[in-house]
Amino acid sequence: MTPVRRAAVLLAAAGIATGVSAALLAASASADTPTPSPGAATINKAGTSFITAAGIAAGQPVRVGASTGEYLYWSFNASAGDTHHVAATVSLPSAGRSGGSTWAVEVFDGLRRRQACVAGAQTPVAAANATTVELDCELRQVRSWAEPWSGDPLPGTYYIRLSVTDLPEQDLGLPIEVSLLVGVETDGDTKPEGGDLKAPLVPPVDPGKVLAGEPGVPDPTAAGTEEGDDGWFDWLRWPDLSSRWYWTIGGGILAAVAGVVGFALTRPRPRVN
Fold it and tell me: What sections of the protein cross the membrane (predicted)?
């Protein structure tokens, strides 16, 4: 093989390898980037605390206007086997900024424990002339059970908080626009190490909704229940009193009996002449 042909073969092999590696990188990047679900409605609101967090679903895009310095909260539900990826883009004003800024996206579980991000730019820095800043956080897989001390993610409600952590004070209050999306990948192995969680660690929240009663506690007034439909024998039921009342009543009866017996033993008897 001549040197010219050998060089051409080497160049062709290098070009093929570069093209394959670029294709693999593009495929992995597209697989990692969340995409909106078809037909999903866009959410145009955000909460200002954990209690008022706006509920969203995986694949549901979020677009909301806010001011620099505000804390923005969203919540979503997670099941065992899910791996969530939070991606956010903050559009910054092109004029009026006096310096750079540092942004942060954080995820908390229902017990307000901050969950670690295993990948992504969680606290990027935006230069003074930057028009956008991109934030990323890929969470650990949600487990079906965990040891109490481990802090591993469990099924339930999770909260996203987007905020700016460092910026010049004179830049507070400038208008921004936030785009956010939560992606999810579900693994069929929901019990990687055995065990099961009977119910979510924190049930899905619905701010403003008043619960009718405790879950699992029957309504005494409901028809057909054992306590609410006793018919003619309803008057035989003992009153729903605490044990303190029974002890008080029993003690009163015993005191009355002791008083009668004591009076009978100590009363003066007529003297017989």
Answer: 245-265
